[in-house]
Amino acid sequence: MLQVTAMERSATFDPTGRYRYSLGRRWSSDPTLAIIMLNPSWADGSLDDPTIRRCLGLAQGWGFGAIAVVNLFAYRSPHPKLLKLVNDPIGQGNDAVLAATAHRADQILLAWGSWRGRDRAVLTLLSPFEAKCRCLGHNRTGQPRHPLYVHRSTPLRPWVTPIH
User: Fold this and answer.
1) Is the pLDDT confidence value at 163 over 70?
2) In terms of DSSP H, where are the helices of 7-146?
């Protein structure tokens, strides 16, 4: 369980609020873990959803002092299947935010779960930072496991790109 007395919270949205480009939480001066997941749900600059709460607990347990959450798709929805119905689920400028976040982070957790298609473009974008990439294991399709679907004692592992 995450035990902190004060936490800095931040989030960056487009003007409509439909796209969240980044979400940050800092509780100490220890290193920052960037977490790249599929798409944002309802967490914002002040409220956490179950995924963010799990990420906070994992990151604290691994010795980090902050998380910087970004996503393959910036469109906000608790239902990933809706991404296929949106004209631009990635969001304008999302790749620039992904790259900048990866550059600043001490380590990067790849954690988007069972989604194919955009992974190759994002892995190419992250190639300069490959040495910092970690995962929680691979799912049966070779994608990096999502934090909600692993035990809280799961260790960070070096990311190895699966052969498709």
Assistant:
1) no
2) 50-61, 94-104, 119-125
Query: What does the pLDDT look like over 78-127, one tens digit per residue?
Result: 999 999 999 999 999 999 999 999 999 999 999 999 888 899 999 999 99
In Å, how far are 62, 71, 83, 154 from 101, measured between CA atoms?
Answer: 19, 11, 23, 24
Burial 9-24 (b: 16+ CB within 10 A, else e): eebebbeeeebbbbbb
Identify residue 153 by its one-letter amino acid code: S
Query: What are the φ/ψ torsions at residue 130 (nearest 5 degrees)?
Result: -55, -35
Amino acid at 127: S
Long-range contacts from 52-57, C-beta under 8 angstroms, 24+ separation:
52/23, 52/25, 53/2, 54/147, 54/148, 54/152, 55/147, 56/2, 56/25, 56/27, 57/1, 57/2, 57/152
* 107-110 and 133-135 strand pairing: parallel
Q: How far apart are CA 83 and CA 135, in angstroms?
A: 23
- What does pTM read for this prediction? 0.95
Would you list the domain boundaries of the chain? 8-158
Q: What are 52's two structure tokens?
A: 């963010």
